Amino acid sequence: MGLLCNQRKKSSFFFLFFKPPQIFVLLGVLLSIHFHSTFGLKVLQLNKTKSSFKIAIFADLHFGENSWSNWGPKQDVNSVKSMSSILHHENPDFVVYLGDVVTANNIPIANASLYWDQATSPTRDRGIPWASVFGNHDDAHFVWPKEWFSKQGIPPLRCSPSNSTLIGDGNCSFMGTTRLDLMNYELGNGTLSFSQHGPKNLWPSVSNYVLQISSSENPESPVAFMYFLDSGGGSYPEVISSAQAQWLKGISNEINPDFRVPEIFFWHIPSKAYQKAAPWLFFVPQPCVGSINKERVCTQESEAGIMKVLQDRPSVQAVFVGHDHGNDWCCPYKKLWLCYARHTGYGGYGNWARGARILEIADQPFTLKSWIRMEDGFVHSHILLSSRPVSSSSIFLVLVLVLVLFFGIKSFYPASAHLISKAKAFISPTAL
Ligand SMILES: [Zn+2]
């Protein structure tokens, strides 16, 4: 597991057991645990023994569905099993919760943090640090199910009885737990979360922040930057705003002005560029890599400049999104990779087998490998994302060139020669 830098540990009684030289070693460890980068970013470090850093991406868990029936809670139990199996097989250093952690529009209680807590429990229980971004379901308003108002339907839960002294005076609005409330709960519930509130001027878009991955030897030496962005939805439009794009431009220029450090991005809803990059077919042909392409890309409502900022940064390696449960591909777009994660949870639509995209970052030279680990342990879709992608148009041109060279020499040229001699005969029959 990567070294934590915001983990708080009590150390006073250590002095009773250790002599000065040992104390300095221990102090060094403790200081590095609290380390923040020069720019105040929270720092994670490459695993010392493996010299790498492994991330599991959990996408679209959708906890809290249909709590009034057996079906919903059963899905949540299955989602915990799915995450536990992936954590068991991969033993990652870090987990990214890629949005739609809960289905708030299906949760008839005032505080959805209860379900958020369940969703993060497999990671927290193993002592693995994590970070999260919001999806379009996380803070949505409760939508009353139609069947509750059918002939035989007596709503099993009409109003929250909490804080209600008068009959019929309960809280029936269930306006969803706000992004800030969910984030405050996550951050207040232990020190393993690396999530942040993001700059206030971007609110209600909350999960906007950067984490630094540093070398195993030197916490001040960045190996990669991980950017997390809130792609909206739920209580406000599904968009990465121009204000977010400007914020990203500013902070990335500040911390990585010469593009020396590779950068990767996480948000929930695909940007419009995903539509352009998507495979044309129902399977996933080269140069894309993946196992399912079962859905059309469902994008953010508009594009307000985020992709332009990314395209202008040669340090950007890849973007990872969730949202479309039936897709798990990575495809090239310009000079970077656009990737889906893999539907991890049993909540939400679709019955495609559950899994998680795994990332592995190594240093000297920098490499970013990825694959998909299924719940049953099967592994597929290996890809090297630190290699510059070859676009499909380039592949098409190479293919045409190969065909021309091969068939041109063998058949095209003799055919042409034959036609030319025929033409000569037509113009001047005596010449033959
Ligand atoms: Zn979803």
Automatic annotation (TrEMBL):
Keywords from the named record: Membrane, Transmembrane, Transmembrane helix
GO cellular component, one term: cytoplasm
Entry superkingdom: Eukaryota
Residue ranges of the TM segments: 394-413
Domain Calcineurin-like phosphoesterase: 53-326
GO molecular function terms noted in the UniProt entry: hydrolase activity, acting on ester bonds
A Pfam family assignment: Metallophos
Record-linked InterPro entries: Calcineurin-like_PHP, Metallo-depent_PP-like
UniProt protein name: Probable inactive purple acid phosphatase 16 isoform X1
Source species of the chain: Spinacia oleracea (Spinach)
Gene name linked to the record: LOC110784484
